[in-house]
Amino acid sequence: MTTPAFRLPLPLLLAMLTAIGPLSIDMYLPAMAAMAGSLSSDIHHVELSVSTFLLGFALGQILGGPMSDRVGRRPVIFLGLVLFAIASLALTHVSSLDGLLLLRGLQAIGGGLAVVNSTAIVRDHFDGTDIARVLSMVAMIMMAAPLAAPLLGSLVLTFSGWRSIFGILSAYAALLIAILVWQLPESHPPHRRVKRSPWAGYATVLKHRVARRYILMLASAYSGMFVFITASPYLYLEHFGQSEQTFPWLFGANVIVIMLMNRLNIFWLRYWSPQRLLTAGILLQFASALALLMLTLSPYFKLPVVLPLLMIYVGSLGLITANTMGTVMQYFREVAGSATALMGVIQFSGGALAGLLWGKLHDHTPIPMMEVSLLTASLALIFLLFARKANQSEAGENSIHASATD
């Protein structure tokens, strides 16, 4: 590939790529009521398309991770973006709920194939604490997508129909292909590529007991955010009676806190380890989830009280995500794509299941939403404790081995 006359910063390129996920999930949230009417369905069934997307995104990642370890990052990215663009364009003509769910699944598979490579590319270039720092920079830039997506979706609804939202997503993918062909070099050279079975990388990651526990912790914490994404149209639009124009601002408040936490994380990494910072994030998430559930059982469950707690609950991921990924990825270099894919698959599968659980329990009150949120936060805290215990055990074994060698 010819070197361009100027190079965009790597965190910016990866943020633009990673933004495919939140744009696809968040941009159409304000349109769910309109989509339900157009597809002769109800908002609850249209909300299932979020879980469908998460499952498809997980499938795309589980396929894309080993593929990129074997053939390189760029071919898998472009294959995914082409599939995403075609499915998004097809969604502009969908006429039934079944068609919506099918095409959202195909769209998600393409997105998963492309996005799974972002963290792997960071691992290709960086080591140690630098992984967490660069991932925080990527996340901070990328958070402009979930912040702007509901606003953009609401604006599109004002001047056009909901189908135009998917047309914009298709155009974004086409633009991204053009930029990345020009700007993104291959970071996984042939001599590092895995020649063995494409699934061997997953076995390598799963056998690592410390990494395995951190991945489950991240998946649990992330599932709470997907519960919020799935349930937020009900909570804000129906329960609190807010308008479609107000919804993006309420939703965006959570994103601003994630951006703030990512910025603080970059600064705090100078003084504290990623493990200490992710522990603080898990504790914040658990405390806010517990407070939210207690509020649902009291007369004080009002928007001005609930909103700040939800901002803390979702915003805590700014301390959790990059630090966990940085901690896990330092163990894997040759199979960085597989490690990234496994994290993504478990995250998005867990998020889809948590969203489906909320849908099953949904009784037109906020209680099931807060119960599932506390469940995911509790699981994250439990897996964190297991990970710390495994880490201490491994450190002890290494110390004994070093002493014996001496």
From TrEMBL:
Belongs to the major facilitator superfamily. Bcr/CmlA family. PROSITE patterns: MFS (PS50850), SUGAR_TRANSPORT_1 (PS00216). NCBIfam families: efflux_Bcr_CflA. It is found in: Cell inner membrane; Cell membrane. Keywords: Cell inner membrane, Cell membrane, Membrane, Transmembrane, Transmembrane helix, Transport. This is Bcr/CflA family efflux transporter. The keyword Metal-binding does not apply. GO terms for biological process: xenobiotic detoxification by transmembrane export across the plasma membrane. It is a multi-pass membrane protein. It comes from the Bacteria. One of its GO terms (cellular component) is plasma membrane. Residues 10-392 form the Major facilitator superfamily (MFS) profile domain. It comes from Thalassolituus maritimus.
